[in-house]
Amino acid sequence: MAVAKKIVNTLDEEPGGCSNSILSDEDWRLTEKNSFKSIEDLQQNMLLSAEDITALKPVVKKYHMRITPYYLSLIQNPFNSQDPIRKQCIPSLEELYDAEEDAIDPLGEERTSPVSCLVHRYPDRVLLVVTGRCFMYCRHCTRKRLWKNKNFEPTVKELELGFQYIKDNPRIREVVISGGDPLTLPTKKLDYILSNLARMGNVQAIRIGTRAPVVLPQRIDEALCKMLEKYSALWINVQFNHPREITPESTEACRKLQRCGIPLNNQSVLLKGVNDDPQVMIELCHKLQSIRVRPYYLYECDPVVGASHFRTSVRKGIEIIKKMRGHTSGMCVPTFVVDGIDGRGKVPLGPDYLVSLTDDEVILKNYNDEVFRYRNPREASEIPMP
Ligand SMILES: *Cc1c(COP(=O)(O)O)cnc(C)c1O
Ligand code: SF4
User: Fold this and answer.
1) Residue 122 CB less than 6 A away from ligand 1
2) Residue segments in the chain with a per-residue pLDDT below the cut of 70
3) Which of 176, 297, 298 to mutate to test the pocket of ligand 1 (most atoms within 8 A of CB)?
4) Does pTM surpass 0.85?
């Protein structure tokens, strides 16, 4: 606890720590620079035992580490390897083990990529990958392959090719800006990307996926909000995975985005030992509702290298949804999805409420497992005329 406090103090001493609500770009950059990037950084702050230090060096060699001081401060007990915040950010020896099914690109994104920065899997929307960088590298990340090249960032020429592809495909009506974390880009560069997309006749909606409000709430500064506010078709999807991530700071970051008129949705990843418990998930979703962030997806953790210790049985996800649907507000229930390997796409899963279906009747089961009959309406052509 004392250790965690020490980190919070470091954060407060910085110019523009999260206690200061008016921050310039410079301020969040400074906070970001102070991120913990090596095992030695953690060692200096007495966050790991001597054994951990030796053991974890090869892990960090294999997969990057980067943790913001703010996110580290959310760890309650740094020596408890079961802490749900610690699990998401501090490397673990288990990452060196790969299960048979694990892949570097489980979703086959490279193969459904028509130009280097785009993934085009569904008919009416594309994923635009604008950077490989993140403020924090989540240990469960599906796009670890982008970390390999620390500075992966499409050039302006590559981006222009992406824009051209979107313009040339009138069926594309939504662009999902992803990465890495798009908010690691300078505000001006993000503005350049958004303005290019917004002026295309076919693009009706733009979505940004970011973890900034969760891991570096300072990033949501005035300059960013002023820029984002210009785009009326903009949605932002965030990734809160545990109720302890909903703090005064992250709440304020969400509030600032909402004040710009941007609807916020949440995409959680189902993670063993973090949120694979109906009570934790219900608490998370209730808290999300209270800060007006709508739970959108709950993802089964993909079979990506270095993350098999996070994967739960698909049954667990269905069980969690079963305990939520009907038992609590529908506004709080996310859709549980499994992302099919090799680009097959997201498949929504949940408990079966449909027992049988014929032309005449439907046998249904409600959230309390009560089975009942429901009359199927007759087709208009079968109804006798008076
Ligand atoms: C998830 C994803 C999308 C968005 O899918 P939604 O179901 O609309 O959220 C689009 N493209 C790719 C490649 C994706 O992985
Ligand atoms: S913020 Fe997203 S892309 Fe970045 S490491 Fe976390 S899960 Fe991966």
Assistant:
1) yes
2) 1-26, 149-151
3) 176
4) yes
